Amino acid sequence: MDFYRLAFGVITGAATCFFAFIGFDCIAIAAEEAVNPVRSLPMSILFAIITVTILYVGMSFGLALLVPYKLVHLSSAFPAALARKGIHWARYLVGVGSMIGLSAAMIGQLFSLPRVIYSLATDGLFFKPFAYINPWKQIPVVSVIVFGFISAIVALFFDISVLAEFLSLGTLISYTMVTTSVLIIRYTPLDQEKLALIKKLLPSLPDDESSQRLKHYENFGKLKHRFRDFPVLKDCEPGLAVVCTVFLAAAGMAAIAAILLYDNGIMTGNWWSVSFMTVLILGIIMAMLVIYIHEENSASMTFQVPGVPLVPMLSMFINIVLMLHLHAITWIRLAVWMAIGLLIYFLYGIRHSKEAAQSPPGFPDTLINQEQKRYWTMATSMELQQPIRKDTDEGPERHTDGRELDEDNAGIDSEENSLFDINSQSDETILLPQIRASVH
């Protein structure tokens, strides 16, 4: 029982302090300013996460070795621990380091938040003045000033514990949405627009490979070949079964987390709690199997999360457990904040959205943005050069016979074709940012 109580406290602390991992979005937000985002962003995020985790774990070990955990000072843990050991001079170093860390965190948020607001404003989802870019500094100066001032006011009047929980809850929800999106997008079929583009480019390939590739792309989101006659699932639209399964699995994970956190029947061996937990666990395992028997969308040329669906499912469960540890008042504050955001969206954003202002595209002939058309043409041409995976009863096979695209049939000029050489499969020849740079 003591172990359960201590574990409960550790998880509660992790949920409250999860905001310490919020800075990684700065790397993703800077994608448009990176030279090679497809390669550099995943490496930067992973390196930053590993480095920060090692530092946090090392600091925790150091503090635990200095004083017993029951004697840790809540408001000044390290200075009090060092003073207790007689190392008074080190307190000042810790104070200086804390100030530097807080300043770095504020600068990081002033880097990322204005860029998010700028993106919303340029898309018409937020007020237009926030899309202004200073011609000299080349930064969204209005967003920096306004939201920097708002952040300072909030930090001045709100208690740090309230802000910590509020920020942690928002971070956990956003990360849960990301893991959910990974699962859904990975099994989403290609839309008719890109399929039309693929069909336009396929004549540049031999007939047998052309038909194999077209079938490969059309099967995204459908059941794998050996499971095509699976009851119920065979009648679902491509990708729909995965979407429903993901949300049902999330509900099951929330139920499991609630039982673990708030029902002592698991620890005492109550048959009802154990039986219900067993059913939920089996249901989540079945959900993972349902997702697994669908064809993955492998058309993306960018970094993809490995171990799908296991890794996203595990991440989702951990996030849900941490979220349920936070106080109810934090959820109420989040609901109020989201209501304000939805109010802005429905009163302003939905009416001024550039996406809504566009007429339904007739890709690839009547696309409004011709630059986007060229971009997708080049990207898909590069994708068609890659080997495909064919799922058969005898096992997966890979077609590795590389052939260069015929420029006349592909309808791409020589400058664009020079970006991808089928004989060179290095990362530098298949990165989409290079395509975008050429288009610009």
Write up this protein.
The termini are far apart. The protein has a two-stranded antiparallel sheet with strand order 1-2. α5 (89-122) crosses α6 (141-157), α7 (160-186) runs antiparallel to α13 (310-324) and α16 packs antiparallel against α19 (432-439). The protein has helices at 2-16, 25-29, 37-66, 77-84, 89-122, 141-157, 160-186, 192-201, 207-218, 240-262, 265-268, 271-292, 310-324, 328-352, 354-357, 370-385, 407-410, 414-417, 432-439; strands at 389-390, 397-398. Helix content is 64%, strand content 1%. The chain contains 19 helices and two strands. The protein has 440 residues and is mostly helical.
The helix content, as a percent range, equals 55-70%
The parts where pLDDT drops under 50 for at least 5 residues are: 359-372, 388-440
Strand order of the largest sheet: 1-2
For the record, give the distance between the C-alpha atoms at the N and C termini, rounded to a whole number: 63 Å
Task: Report strand %.
Answer: under 5%
Q: What is the count of DSSP helices, taking H or I runs of 4+ residues?
A: 19
Which radius of gyration do the C-alpha atoms yield? 26 Å
**Total beta strand runs:** 2
Sheet having the most strands:
2 strands, antiparallel
Principal-axis shape: globular
Determine the structural class based on helices, strands and strand pairing: mainly alpha
Element-level helix/strand string: HHHHHHHHHHHHHHHHEEHHH
Average predicted confidence as pLDDT: 76
